[in-house]
Fold these 2 entries.
Entry 1:
Amino acid sequence: MAGPDDVLRRVRPELPEHLASPTSAAAQALLEEILSMQTTGPDVADPTPPPAPRNRSRRRLLVVAAASVVAFAAAAFVAIRLGGDDGPSDDVKTVPSEQPVPERTGRIRLTWRMRGDDVPTGEAVERYEFSGDDIAVSGAPYGPKSQQVVVDGQTYEYMPDLSQWPETMGPEAYDPLTGPYLWVRSTVTPPMPTVAHVDQSTLFDQLGAAGPFEDVGTDEVEGVPTRRVRATRPELTPYEVLKVSDPLAGSTATGLDVWVDESGGVLRVDMVFELTIEGDHIRQSLSIVWSDLGEPITIEPPPIG
């Protein structure tokens, strides 16, 4: 028959010898302490010494019992310290492993379009790249050649270089298509939030005030399968969560469509705004498309001047 130390050794092979064996000095010390303790049991509390043979028999039983106590106490101690099957005790505080959170990366295409009865159709496109808080923007806000870069909290802007334009012609004559540009450091610190700061993984919930949303069907956005939904109350859209420039003053949102991927992340938002000025009906639309999410993107500071 296997003894307590054999059983414990099979269960806890990593247990130190002085704790695993009931015949060790540590186990014997604990045994003597157990034998010297006052208990309420009738056999132990009896002050009259029993005959010698019975004493030896009782002591032998106590040795076996105490050895089992030592073995299982040691097993419980090791289970607590090393982590048993039932998990750590309240005395042991576990520290969750810190997994590095990958930076958000991706690209965004933002398109404004406007048309009206007496207004020529116009279109403006802004393109964003982002890697964490670093952002590169092209196509806005000063003209088709304009760019903006944010690296480590510093904003750089590629702006028309009016110093190279003849003063006699005045800045209003500057041609943004042919005129010179240069990179300058912006005095805006910190940089203004843009659509690149929008967390598209939670955006759909933020747009919830415009709901409920109707299912329009399945679609693909930049090759990614999505579910397209349409807001039933677009006029209640919390427009500020998109962090883009405002539509025409006085206009009302009359349409909001959202494309959501299988994880619940928004990959596209389309909005429509309508306005009537002096009988002229103007329709302005906004489209925001996310792509290349999670792809490696590096934003570098541009040369100044």
Entry 2:
Amino acid sequence: MKKVMKHMGNFITDTKAWNYLILHAEGEETACWFTEKMKELTGKEPVSIVNISPVICLSAGIGTVAVAAMTE
């Protein structure tokens, strides 16, 4: 999780984050952790926090979390 946030920090440093969202596969606790870290990084609330489809859960695994950022 820290590695993902390091990557997001580098990514957002190079470009301005317009907005972001958090997607999770039955991983609400981890999604909350990423939300707090992204709020610290961007100063913004996420557009949305979404529980992704069961099909993706089968492929990626339960507890998987993704952060998607939209930049200017």
